Amino acid sequence: MLDANRSEAVMFRTIPAMLFAALSLMLSPARSSAHAAEGVFTLDARVALSGYQGVVEEHLAGVLSGLKALALTQNVKSGNWESMKAPLQMLSEGLHTDVHIWFAKPDGSYSTSTLGLTDKNLADREYFPELMAGKDVTDSLVISKTTGERSVIVATPVFVEGKVVGALGATVSVEKLAKLVSDRMRLPKDVVFYALDMQGRTALHTVTDLMFQYPSDIGDESLKSAVKTLLTEREGVTRYTFRGASRTAIFERSQSLGWVFVLGVTPGE
Q1: Rounded to two decimals, what is the model's pTM?
Q2: Which CATH number goes with the domain that contains 123?
Q3: Taking the CB of residue 82, how many other CB atoms lie within 10 A of it?
Q4: I need a labelling partner for 131 at 20 to 30 A (CA). Which of 95, 236, 267, 269 fits?
Q5: What is the residue-averaged pLDDT of the chain?
Q6: pLDDT value of residue 8
Q7: For residue 158, what are the domain limits?
């Protein structure tokens, strides 16, 4: 799946003009061409949407793979921060979104690749019991206790003889993740991307200030209806009004993250 998404991401770099034309046609008042326009929109925009989704999924999957590989090493299994610090720093430096890597003990205390042992605790995070129960975390949105940034948590438990002795995690800034998407996709300025988590909160957005907001709380009834559609259907096309402008967007739910990825046009901006 990730290989296919990489191919689609590369393909999309050659078609921004086609995508923009297709999106614009859907918003055209000339209704006689509506069916033809939607056909073009669905074909070209779905390639772009798959490419955008692939960039995000591939990056977070790569982070998780790196963490899981380190979690199998004796450096990490030892629970000794000095033994694991160097490989964790290497992983952090090898990623493109200034990821902060951390090791947490079962009591929630943790050390980071940039600061070492902190005076903070992760035991009150919603995802932490899941980690201590032996499950991976890939999509939890938080305000980082370490950096203060809006972030997504990717983490995996560390096992010794079948028992969870801690967890390795990565705090990924959603602003830097969105920039990674923008840099790789090179979307036309009238095309926006965003993603909603399963609670309807904005995980990613072209517009930084809209991240971590709930669209249903800041828009009119048409946007509330659109959000309901995004959260209940697997894929499709939806229309709504936001900040006085008509919007049309194509969307699809990620099977790996559970997020709804959306690509649309904002005419006149």
Answers
A1: 0.81
A2: 3.30.450.20
A3: 10
A4: 95
A5: 83
A6: 36
A7: 79-174
